[in-house]
Amino acid sequence: MGEKIVTRHPDPAKRGRNIDRRNYEAVRTAVLATLRQRGEMTFEALRDEVERRLRGRFQGSVSWYYTTVKLDLEARKLLERVPRSRPQRVRLRGSQTASAGTGRPTAQRRVSSRRR
Fold first, then answer.
1. C-beta separation of 10 from 76 below 8 A
2. Which residues contact 28 (CB under 8 A, 6 or more apart)?
3. Cα–Cα dist 85/13, whole Å
């Protein structure tokens, strides 16, 4: 089994998900590259493009991972929803890039509760 990470959620009352790091990285790369190339897009158009980019190279539900990773990227302030847009539109936030600051999650590590 591959390395797992815990994603973030933009709503502090909700929890992120524990997901496979390779799947996270593949979807994250596709989302950020697409938004850099095309700019602001609808939620659905971006999902469709991410699915197209990953077709045949991804195991699992691209749509589910896309939604989870998009929420994580919002929580990390790398992308944002366009206010008052219907249907929902998303865009890169400012001039953020894929390697900016804390834009990547850290691996989940089990912490022992016993003292050494």
1. no
2. 69, 72, 73, 98
3. 23
Please enumerate, as own/partner, the contacts of 80-89 that have beta carbons within 8 Å and a separation of 24 or more.
Answer: 82/40, 87/42, 87/43, 87/44, 88/42, 88/43, 89/40, 89/41, 89/42, 89/43
Q: Which residues sit opposite 6 in a β-bridge? A: 18
Q: Nearest 5°: CA angle at 21, between 17 and 26?
A: 105
Tens of pLDDT, residue by residue over 20-44, are 999 999 999 999 999 999 999 999 9
pLDDT above 80: residue 76: yes
Q: In degrees rounded to 5, what are phi and psi of residue 96?
A: -65, 145
Note if the pTM is more than 0.85.
no
